[in-house]
Amino acid sequence: MRSSRWIPGLLAIALLGACRAAPPLPEPATTAAEPPTGAAPGWWPDRIFYEIFVRSFADATTGPLANDGIGDFQGLIEKLDYLNDGDPETITDLGITGIWLMPINPSPSYHGYDVTDYFGVHPQFGTRQDFERFLAEAHRRGIRVIVDLVLNHSSSQHPRFVQALRGEPASRDWYVFVPPSDVPTTLGPWGQQVWQEKQGQHYLGIFWAGMPDLNYRNPAVTAEAERIAAFWLREMNVDGFRLDAIRHLIEDGDVMTDTPETRAWLKRFQAKLRQIEPDVLTVGEVWASTEAVSEYIAEDALDLAFEFDLATAILDAARTGNKAKLAYTLDNVAASYPANRYATMITNHDQNRVASELGEDTPRLKLAAGLLLTAPGVPFVYYGEEIGQIGEKPDEMIRNPMPWSSAVHGGFTQAHRPWEPMQPGHATRNVAVQDADPASLLNHYRRLIRLRQSEPALSRGGFRSIETGREDVIAWERAAAGQRLIVVANLAGDTIRNFRVPGTEGDVIAGELLHAAPVEAGAADLAPHQLLVFTLR
After folding, report:
1. I want to staple 85 with a disulfide (CB 3.0 to 4.6 A). Which of 81, 97, 145, 369 is the partner?
2. pTM of the entire structure?
């Protein structure tokens, strides 16, 4: 073993790795490294995804939908260079290599989760040709695109449900109806009314009356789901699906979540998708504990599933300054899944925004971002998270338009008013202001994303927790292809002087990757809420 001393010549190499732009597709450069045993298959382990609510991202400045107050596909195209300009030499884009689009199908609701036409695109967002242009532009920049596929339910205005209400036999069994005299009194998983009534008829709708549950015990419904997926993969050329609310697909009496029938159906559906397109990605929303979510991966019902326990633990660590919950959750998650076979996030479109949860405290927001982007798994960033956009329930208030500048309506639109008001503070909390500030949250995200994209150990590496001897400092090791990185985070609001970096005994610290100060003899000062990444040789 070599002695513990800093080698000056290696620090510059490490810092250059932190500043490189994310490479373009077809595959990021990090895939050239050998993944660890048990690593996730496919193109997605190296990706960093960005979740977009099209209605709120960018209103087009040209074309027939320009400046109508609603975001659209042309607006997305105009802002793609912000996410990834396709040039690996630049460092002014965010470096995103994957996009998840929330529902883009026709729907009577602003959110789109009650679909009326699974083969169409919402006319407020543009035409099919507009979407295809967006997809081509994203692919040209090296960005893969997945779309929301809402399988659990349709809209109550879907033609099939309208026909079912009329009593048409061919459509009646597409949904779950019961006679008026036999309506169950069972409540849903969160104590809600699930048996709905319309025109004197009673049917299952776990979320609300406008979303009748589809009946996957009917083979015709399964066949239609497969036809829809084939259309979006083969004809529209998307790269995969985020599968909404899938833990509720098939009920078993009063049991409405995570039934064996649901996982078995998804496994068959997954196999069918791979026949259609072997390179397809499925990411499941199973809003449950790690123990419940990991069963879907263990049974190969999904490629990835969102890790809600880990998201909650990241927030808890950044908020409280205590590592206990995060340390336990990281170990539990690593033990519960095959390596990196889960999707990570901090919050999403159904939760209060990170900045509101952390009191708009920039150091804590930077810490939370660092914890997300140095941990194992495939990370997802909710639009606006990188600039500290605020928002608390109700749902419309966590899906507000993206503020691009200090202009009227945040530069989102030149219409008289946007579809939903901007959040307070957008005049200073926007992309243009933060772009000009090297110390901003936006530029911190850019550095973190480039760091993750440039280091195989962060994107595909294994995970090992490291004891620090302190409740306010958490550390772990990421390793792949002969490379070892040590992540150390000061969760507290006080500086920790001369902290000895754990896990470096007998090794050489080549340099830390996010800050310019060299590290001598294995010890460093940890500023409040600071996360450091060290490379070991």
Report:
1. 81
2. 0.91
